[in-house]
């Protein structure tokens, strides 16, 4: 985990990654809270079983050579996502495929050794970055919620930053304060 206290980093590592167990795993616990008893079921996972596990667990199990990682569908070389991004990246709904698309891709690429994920993420981000900032400066508040449903969490933050910057620019252009004194500079020193 890169940043222990960053909620976005925690949520990005909760994304499910398909994996295949290489060895039998005995005594794997599964917490079942479907009823009021809150019981823990003990399972045996056989070698060759395919499961989707959170990334934080996949990374640890992979480093211990207990599982092999299958590339998630949104990053796969023959995926529909790659074709759609190549055709028109600005209108692809990446949030439904992976809300933390870029962050998970950056963490997953060195782990599985796929050299095509990095350039793919760069192309997608480069094209979508321009679209996000253009729409942040031009969309009205009635159209914006529909557009925000297409953006990943990283892109949504960029969109909000773009809207804040245009609002600050408009305030400044209208005649807001030109210069502001930093709060540190306004304090008087105590005599020694």
TrEMBL record:
Segments forming domain GINS subunit: 80-172
Location of the DNA replication complex GINS protein PSF3 N-terminal domain: 5-62
Transmembrane residue ranges: none
Subcellular location: Nucleus
Cited Gene3D superfamilies: 1.20.58.2050
Keywords, in A-Z order: DNA replication, Nucleus
InterPro entries linked: GINS_A, GINS_bundle-like_dom_sf, GINS_Psf3, GINS_Psf3_sf, PSF3_N
Signal peptide range in chain numbering: none
Family: Belongs to the GINS3/PSF3 family.
Name of this protein: GINS subunit domain-containing protein
Organism per entry: Rehmannia glutinosa
